Backbone:
């Protein structure tokens, strides 16, 4: 990060660790009092900008937690720790309610068809994603997202609210726009944040973008007085299904010829789940292009690809193996050849949560089952400790965070 606070994301663990080191001194009072201000793409000095690396687990949440507690008291970094754990909360909530993700994906497909036959809707949607609505703040955020792959969290909330309540656009199309342009876009945080703004995640309680709030927290950079619809009604939809238990993960069987498969969801091969395995081959897959029925940002696709390449390089070094190949597209087609070439009896991969990669895994799972090859997905202790507590709202979830920190 430069002195001006401009963030540049290189898709490597080394870059993530460097950014963490530079941010840690500011994670206490400074972050707590300044984090809500959106200074624009030229000034990100008040936020960590770690989310693209955390989303791909080039760096782990527990590493970030340990670093900030190593320099600050628990009380001083309470707000930062809560923000760090929001992504964990969303992931746990969706993991126990995968139908919400499936419904979203179906809705996006349905809306793509609707856009082709509804020119008024198509025009509003196109002006929204191109930053041509005439609402200066919104248009600037749309262009910033497309240009950088990032938006300040407060700007994401304002943008989503304007999209839904001022422009009258379906929330699913906005979530899709974010997912194909955000470097840190993932199924849980993105989908559920949009649902929260719409008033679906906490039924009856939508988020309203108010001109005065935007003026205050952009320090007057934007003045959208009279342009926003501030009297709103939450979106109404069928209630989310009750949560179910987390899936079982299984344990590796010693003595079987094993291959290590990495996805863009978890690339920290330095973690404990990798301690007791001895793979004979490593490979990686990237599913970024499957995030949307529309083209995914080149920046997003390239970041995802390079992140997996970085993970493969580190995995090869750890296990003294040749750097594995990177695959995309038809997972069933290549998994068969990879397993046959390496005479694999077992495939090990860090747990793949609900989302695009898991959708792609279904075909792969069927092919492995057909060949009699075990698929084992060890889950990290961070997720096992926190995900089961994502049963209600975040404020109840905070108690489990406090227990984790105290423990």
Residues:
């Amino acid at each position: 990060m430069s002195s001006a606070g401009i963030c540049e994301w290189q898709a490597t663990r080394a870059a993530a660790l460097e950014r963490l080191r530079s941010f840690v001194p500011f994670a206490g009072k400074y972050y707590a009092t300044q984090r809500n201000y959106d200074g624009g793409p030229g000034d990100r000095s008040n936020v960590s900008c770690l989310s693209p690396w955390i989303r791909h687990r080039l760096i782990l949440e527990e590493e970030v937690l340990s670093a900030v507690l190593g320099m600050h008291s628990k009380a001083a970094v309470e707000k930062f720790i809560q923000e760090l754990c929001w992504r964990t909360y969303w992931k746990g909530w969706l993991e126990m309610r995968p139908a919400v993700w499936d419904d979203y994906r179906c809705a996006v497909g349905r809306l793509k068809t609707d856009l082709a036959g509804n020119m008024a809707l198509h025009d509003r949607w196109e002006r929204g994603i191109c930053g041509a609505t005439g609402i200066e703040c919104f248009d600037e955020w749309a262009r910033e997202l497309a240009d950088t792959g990032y938006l300040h969290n407060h700007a994401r909330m304002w943008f989503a609210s304007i999209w839904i309540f001022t422009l009258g656009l379906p929330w699913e199309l906005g979530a899709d726009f974010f997912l194909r342009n955000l470097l840190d876009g993932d199924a849980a945080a993105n989908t559920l944040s949009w649902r929260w703004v719409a008033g679906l995640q906490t039924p009856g309680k939508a988020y309203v973008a108010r001109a005065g709030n935007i003026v205050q927290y952009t320090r007057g950079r934007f003045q959208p007085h009279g342009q926003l619809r501030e009297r709103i009604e939450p979106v109404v939809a069928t209630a989310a299904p009750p949560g179910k238990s987390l899936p079982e993960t299984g344990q590796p069987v010693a003595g079987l010829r094993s291959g290590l498969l990495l996805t863009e969801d978890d690339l920290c091969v330095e973690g404990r789940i990798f301690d007791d395995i001895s793979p004979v081959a490593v490979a990686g897959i990237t599913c970024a292009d499957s995030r949307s029925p529309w083209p995914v940002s080149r920046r997003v696709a390239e970041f995802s690809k390079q992140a997996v390449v970085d993970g493969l390089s580190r995995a090869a070094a750890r296990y003294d193996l040749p750097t594995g190949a990177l695959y995309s597209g038809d997972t069933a087609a290549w998994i068969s050849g990879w397993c046959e070439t390496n005479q694999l009896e077992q495939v090990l991969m860090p747990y793949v949560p609900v989302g695009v990669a898991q959708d792609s895994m279904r075909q792969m799972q069927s092919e492995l089952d057909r060949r009699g090859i075990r698929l084992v997905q060890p889950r990290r202790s961070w997720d096992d400790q926190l995900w089961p507590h994502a049963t209600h709202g975040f404020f109840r979830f905070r108690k489990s965070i406090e227990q984790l920190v105290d423990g």
